[in-house]
Amino acid sequence: MHVVRKNEHDADTASWEAAVSAWVDGEDEIRAEDLDTPYGRQVWETYHLIGDVLRNEDLAIKPSPMFYARLSRAIDDEPTVLAPRALKRPRWRARVSGLAVAAAVAAVAWVVVPRLAGDPALELQPLPAAQLAAAEPTDDTALHDYLDAHEGLVGVVPVRLVSYGTGVQP
Amino acid sequence: MLLMLAWPVVATSATNGADATVTDNNDTSAQAGLLLKMQAAARELDYAGIYTYQQGVVMISSRVVHLVDGTGERERIEILDGAPREYIRHNDTILTLLPERKVVIKETRTVDRFPAFLVGEGKQIAEHYDMVVTGLPERVAGRDCEPLVLKPRDEHRYGHILCIDTDSHLLLKAQTVSASNEIIDQVAFSNLVMGEDAAAAQVNASWDTSEWTEVEAHLNSVNLFDMGWRIPQPPGFDVIAQVSRPLRADARVNHLVLSDGLAAISIFVEPFDPDRHSMSGQGGIHKAGLSVFRKRIGDFWLTALGQVPAETLRDLAGRIEYVPLAR
């Protein structure tokens, strides 16, 4: 997007801000001499001011378009993580409730790995997250296998969702 | 969190059979036919979408792609919440992909997942559920659907409210309802495309599993009745599967499944093991619509569970007997 820049006019302030925004987005070029203007210096001061505001709420002001320009730039500057699907500390655990975590893990512990039988380190075991904080973990764990087998054959959805503490019925 | 609702107040198609009329029978067979169309749609149509299953505070969304070609059904179900997991099915061959463990489990069995809702052919559903069409179309996933209420005729099972796509008869939404009108769980599409729009969807595995560990899970057919087990079935419940299967890495168990076409009860029979089976663990548990009942019978440990009222399992377990066959 080509933007014509004139510094004096108010109506051109908008186009100037648009140019800066486009520049931080990597869409357009900006001339260094344009920054060396009263308005250009204000842009750069704003960048620094934002840092101060984040550290001191008293300085907080209503966000200007420059704020969004900076935010956009900051996001663009985030390093891209090129790691493959590394699932060592899954972030989803922070978002999903404990019940769903434990239930959805539903590791098929009942499956024998024939080639590796006798090697306990490689035996499929329920992940630690399957141990619930709720009522009686032993009861829950004991029923996991049966529930998995049941849901596996007839479940509407193929994961066990109910986590079982001791229930109500005598 | 309880969701309450009232059964729709419309004339039911049949009551206890005593005063069924010709008109009632026609309505019943029309609705039974609708259920069969619904099941057929799930098996025969091309569709792709995302559905969410909710039970209490737990919600799990899944992406499903179902395509039919000259070789039969191909289906991929990708669990979108929680631990990544995917199921790839080609007719009765199912691969379960566990990417965190780099394990692929291969099995051969018949299983119907949402939107295939009936267990088996569901031919006996009309005998044990009143089927009510409310006639008030609803809208699910942007599509018009027709509600069908399956109200249990006795206290042995729960009810269901279905919403069936008006055009294709695909099941769009299903809710399980207790006798006290609580919604026990529900599943519904949030978006759905069908036909040609679905054909481009990916039905192959999301990961390259060539380096993964492959495991074959074997379910062997058994006959518990021949072994001496007497398992009286609750009204309407038929035996639909009997297998011997691994329960844990170190134990096998006999697994029998009863179903009335909608509800399913699993009965697990294994040798009593004092290390794992506690006499104090006998009895019933009920939570979130799922009932469990455990009992020692002779040298065996029995575990019954299913989405049925607690009394159904208690009665069932109370009448199971083991009569060793004389040699």
Describe the structure.
The complex is a heterodimer of chains A (170) and B (327). Chain A has 170 residues and is an all-alpha fold. Chain A has 2 domains: 67 residues, no CATH class; 63 residues, no CATH class. Chain A is built from 7 helices and no strands. The N and C termini of chain A lie far apart (73 Å). The N terminus and C terminus of chain A are likely disordered. By secondary structure, chain B is mostly beta strands. Chain B has 2 domains: 178 residues, outer membrane lipoprotein receptor (LolB), chain A; 105 residues, MucB/RseB, C-terminal domain (Phosphorylase Kinase, domain 1, 2-Layer Sandwich), CATH 3.30.200. Chain B contains 5 helices and 22 strands. In chain B, the strands form 3 sheets. In chain B, strands 1, 2, 3, 4, 5, 6, 7, 8, 9, 10, 11, 12 and 13 form a 13-stranded mixed sheet that branches. Chain B has a 7-stranded antiparallel sheet with strand order 14-16-17-18-21-20-19, with helices on one face. Chain B has a two-stranded antiparallel sheet with strand order 15-22. In chain B, a hairpin with a 4-residue loop joins strand 17 and strand 18. The longest helix of chain B is centred in the N-terminal third of the chain and has 23 residues. The N and C termini of chain B lie far apart (55 Å). About 5% of the residues of chain B have low confidence. The chains are: A mainly alpha (170), B mainly beta (327). The interface between A and B is large, with 51 and 67 residues.
